[in-house]
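Much of what follows relies on a compact textual record of a protein's fold. Each token is a code from a learned vocabulary of local backbone shapes. The record below shows the convention in full.
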Amino acid sequence: MTTESQKFEKFGQEWWNPAGRLFSLHRINPLRFEYFSSKCADLQGKAVLDIGCGGGLLSEEFAKKGARVTGIDLSPVAVETAKKHSVESGLEIEYKLSSPAQLLEKNPEPFDIIICAEVLEHVDDLRGFLRDSLRMLKPGGLFFFGTINKTVKARLLAIFVAEDVIGMVPQGTHDYQRFIRPSLLKEILEENGVEMTELKGMSYDPLRLEFKLSNDTSVNYLGYAKKK
């Protein structure tokens, strides 16, 4: 059986092809970075951990603003792609083949910001994953997230339409059973001393072929939380 991380092994350089099989990530990347960065007074010198960094699309945006970025992923292909592209971009980013638990064992300095964007819906043990991740966040630090709601609408649009009908996302990318209700995410964050501060929807406009922020969280949603 293919693991969640193995699903992304086949993409390689497609991580950075805006017209390739991961083009939807390129469509949402500016939107999600603009939202996340708007919640920070200044990114210069901030220690940022991008968990499930993939090919480094978000990592590079934070690095361009002066953040000290560490990106981790369980896909060797994604990590090598991210490393290569950061060199080509002239950016200093530390990429590691690691899970949050493995990184935590090495006792890293705590981070000002931790990002889990389009990764939470792919983990096996959500509570354990977030527990390990949030232990590395400084008190007062920010947790940025983006994932998919567990609704009938999300099952229809994020899987059937996006994967099977229009091919916006490669088939087999998502598993409905792994989708996450905001109420569950809020509960787990609170268990770890992190308070959800804002929740926004990320809706697709089929006429303009672009995503936009909205108040509709029934499919894709993103937001941020703060550690007490």
The mean pLDDT is 93. The CA atoms of residues 50 and 71 lie 5 Å apart.
